[in-house]
Structure formats: C-alpha cells, structure tokens
Hints:
This protein has 324 residues and is an alpha/beta fold. It has a domain of 214 residues: NAD(P)-binding Rossmann-like Domain (Rossmann fold, 3-Layer(aba) Sandwich), CATH 3.40.50.720. It contains 10 helices and 13 strands. α2 links the parallel β2 and β3. α4 runs parallel beside α5. The longest helix has 24 residues. The mean pLDDT is 96. It binds nicotinamide-adenine-dinucleotide and uridine-5'-diphosphate (2 copies). The site of one uridine-5'-diphosphate has 14 residues, from α6 and β8.
Amino acid sequence: MRYGKSKKILVTGGAGFLGSHLCERLVEQGHEVLCVDNFFTGTRRNIAHLMESKNFELLRHDVTHPLYVEADEIYNLACPASPVHYQFDPVQTTKTSVNGAINMLGLAKRLKAKVFQASTSEVYGDPEVHPQSESYWGRVNPIGFRSCYDEGKRCAETLFFDYRRQHNLEIKVVRIFNTYGPRMHPNDGRVVSNFVVQALRGQDITVYGEGLQTRAFCYVDDLIEGFIRLMATGAEITGPINIGNPGEFTIRELAETVIRLTGSRSKIVSRPLPPDDPKQRRPNIDLARQVLDWVPEVQLEEGLTKTIAYFDAFLSAEERRIDS
Ligand code: NAD
Ligand code: UDP
Ligand code: UDP
C-alpha cells in the first residue's frame, strides 16, 4: 500500500554511479524504488546501504530485453558512461541505448507512466558552437569509436520524441554534462576518478594530449536535484534540457587542482589523445535556470574535496581487504 504522494519509481542503471545517488534520493523522499541493473558497470556495493529499506527493491535485468513491471515513473539511466566501458562491447552499448529505450518507452506506454531519459552532452559531439545550447544539433562522427555511445544516445532521443508525438507519452530528456562524485567506478577511466585515484596512490597523472581540451564538471548532488526538478514538471516540459556546471576547466588545470587538493607528489605525464576526443565542452544552462529554477551550487574544489575523501576511504578499505 502506498500513501500520499509516494510513488513507485523504476530506475534502470540504478546500481551505477548516478543511479545509486538517484535511488538514494528517491528512497529518502519516501518513494518505492525498483532498481534494475545488469551490473555491467554498476555494483551491489553502490546500493548496499539501501538494501535494508523496505522501500527499495533490486532486480537483475538487462534492459535490452523486455521488462514487465509496474511503476508510476521511469528513470532510464542504464548505459555504461565511461569511454573505456562503452567501447568494450560497442554493439551492446548501442543495443542498450536503442533497444533499452524502446523497451522502457513500451513499458511507459502500457503503464501511462512518465519516462525520463539520461541523455548526454555527447549528442553535441566535437562541437563548433560554444557553449552548447539545446538548439545546437551537434557534430558527431557516425562511424568512430565514440559513435556507439553518441549515436545510440541520439537515437534514443529520437525514439523519446517519436513516442511522444505518436503515442502522446510524457517524456523528460536531460542532457547530462560531465558529472563526478562519490561512487564513480575507481577503474572506469573517466578523468576525475582517474586523476583522484592516481594522486592518492602516488602514481603518474595521465593527461591525454596536451591537456588543453576543456570540460565542465558537475557535482553529483546538483545533477540529481536537476533530475528531480525536471521529473516534477508538467507534461508540456519535455526537454531536451542541459544539466551541468558551466565552470569550464582544461584537463591540465583539473590535474593540477587534484594534485594540490590531495597534497600528492604525483607527476603529470602525457599520454596519446584518444580519437574524436571533443576539444571543448561547456553547457549553456539558461533553459534549466528558466524552466527548473536550477543552478549548480557545488563548485569544483568543494566537489573534488568530497570526492577525494570518498576515494581515500575506499582505497584504504581496499588495502585492508587485500591485507586480511
Ligand atoms: P555507470 O556506468 O556508473 O552506470 C550505468 C549503469 O547502467 C550501471 O549500473 C550498469 O551496470 C548499468 N547498465 C549498463 N548496461 C545495462 C543494461 N543493458 N541493462 C541494465 N543495466 C545496464 O554510469 P553513470 O555515470 O552512472 O551514468 C548513468 C547514465 O547517465 C548513463 O545513461 C550515462 O550515459 C548518462 N550520463 C552520465 C554522465 C556522467 O558524467 N556521469 C554524462 C552523460 C550521460
Ligand atoms: N515492452 C516492455 N514492457 C511492457 C511493454 C512493452 O518491455 O510492459 C517492450 C516490448 O518489448 C515492446 C517494446 O517495449 O516490443 C515496445 O513496445 P510498443 O508497445 O511501443 O511496441 P510493440 O513492439 O509492442 O508494438
Ligand atoms: N582524460 C585524460 N586523462 C585520463 C582520462 C581522461 O586526460 O586519465 C581526458 C579525456 O581525453 C577527455 C577528458 O579527460 O578529454 C574527459 O574524459 P572522460 O573520459 O572523463 O569524459 P568524456 O571524454 O566522455 O567527456
């Protein structure tokens, strides 16, 4: 039995980095959460603290297969997000984005449920427009190493908008810019987790290329707040809507900041730049500001400090596990 405003909410990819924070937030708000994950990049550890709650349920399932459950709202986050992981099995990555979207949209259609898609700034590719607004159509290589992810996510957006036009579904599409924080996978190859783990272990900090490419980094709590606000909007608000922190940094600046904040003796070393690596990226968040009254509150040094504390504890626990 559910009371008041408590809803039954499905979160796909709920055992991943962002998904686990979203599940936590929704459980805190008193909703019943069904977390669906195939554990490709997510872990039980990320949601272990939620398993005690009577409002939290876990289902091991791959979203490329149909799913018949009940829910009032669906957040579709299932998809590996780091280049290392999404390029490991690129065909599965496209299937996850495209077939996963079809299945979640089919489910939402049957249930008449609101459905939310975690899209990405990668839909803008290596952009010629800076900063990126939602009206920019992007510059994406359709046949490169990043294409399985970028084109899969673009196709998922197409499906969301066609289901809205064809079946009048209530959709919410968010374009997420680089987000970081506790529970990122320590080996997933993304820049913040790589640099923090390398700095804490006293290993070389691997800057790809000259390190002059830029990214804008959003702390996870700010992002989740944006998700919740978007889901709460009326049917006329569909997105796509950028959510990210407009503070833009070169990768070299990020490396130097991580070294300073950890007090590490690590040296910065150069490694080859991966193909199609976008040169610059920063969100224009005017739409989120207007429609959601949302702006990020946690700036880079504060967010990095929290992330460093998480990885410091995580790596120490790992060492203890190895010693025992
Ligand atoms: P993550 O890799 O930590 O989480 C993805 C989750 O999806 C994992 O738990 C994984 O096991 C699960 N998953 C993957 N394939 C699946 C499948 N076929 N069926 C069921 N579960 C599956 O990544 P994240 O950073 O938490 O990203 C979550 C979502 O946000 C992804 O859709 C990603 O594309 C999007 N996104 C994230 C960022 C970011 O900076 N973190 C940026 C842009 C977009
Ligand atoms: N689907 C699902 N759960 C449901 C309803 C549908 O997983 O509760 C999947 C099913 O695999 C289907 C897809 O969603 O093929 C798209 O559903 P839709 O109703 O749009 O199209 P269909 O293929 O059924 O004509
Ligand atoms: N990067 C880096 N060293 C690393 C990992 C990443 O210099 O150890 C760079 C990468 O080339 C890219 C940026 O950091 O320019 C962000 O990479 P990430 O994989 O985190 O995300 P994305 O490229 O998808 O934005």
